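Why do we bother with holo predictions? Because pocket geometry can differ from the apo form. Keep that in mind while you read this record for zinc ion.
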Amino acid sequence: MNKNDLIQKLPKTELHLHIEGTFEPELMFEIAKRNNIKLPYDSVESLKNTYEFNNLQEFLDIYYQGVNVLKKEQDFYDLTWAYLLRAKADNVVHAEIMYDPQSHTERGIDFDYAINGIHRALQDGQSKLGISSYLILSLLRHLSENECLETLQLAIPHLDKIKAIGLDSSELGNPPEKFTRLYAKADELGLLKVAHAGEEGPPEYIWSALNILDIDRIDHGNRCLEDEKLVDYIVKEKLTLTVCPLSNLKLCVVNDLRKHPIKTMLDKGIKAMINSDDPAYFGGYVNDNYKAVTKALDLSEEEIIQLAKNSFTGSFLSSEEIAKYIAQIDRLKKGVLY
Ligand code: ADE
Ligand code: ZN
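The structure, written out:
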């Protein structure tokens, strides 16, 4: 079996995916039209031409502009359903999906519209596509902690639909410790905790996300490699890093995929796994990410299989469900390698 076939065949999860980052230009134009909104671009092509970024902030400016056309519950349903169809095609069997409630409430959209539309699509994803999922309420770190606490308050009637809290948006200048009370409150509410850390921010941000916010999983975490003690700690604690190769390339976190740290992470024993982050903007969904790093770093079949296994062990699925998928991968591995 060639490596691309193996990537296609492996069951996998996606744990670092912003639903707003799956908004394909074609769907954006369609929803804009039915909501009578004029986009500041005259075609899909001219919109796509803006997808050139020198850093995270340049991307975020375009990404927040894109969500402006999402107004109704059905819009959020359609956005999520389109992602689930794409995930199914890549043999994603479980997804832990982030959404940014504040990028909608800040525009005057009722809090309930986004969460209800996304949740309804996720339920259909389970019943019609067999994809299980959890929802992560991701808060915007460029806003104040009090604003984030107010948003978390709005989520309380919906806690049955939310698995974890997350932290995204502009990392530099907005360190994890700014959100100490927010994460303590989320913990009190019984939510699991993840946070973007070490994408552009220094290793100290990863330390404080772990020590102060007490996160269960690190989103990105690339810059942990600059701190040997941190690497040792991540390995010892079996912490998972949700790594996003094509995102790292598009946002200039790495300037060449051949220099991407995913292989070094595996070599050091870090539980890294692969995700698409914002696939509509970064040029590919999860299998495209696996294929791109496999080619650039000449990953072996063993390494590809390890990445798929890490995608399950790093998930918030039960240990029984994880064991079921690991056994499935081991059966596939037997057929491929022996
Ligand atoms: N929001 C969406 N994608 C993001 C990323 N890669 N980093 C921080 N915030 C984000
Ligand atoms: Zn992200």
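The first strand starts at residue 12 and ends at 18.
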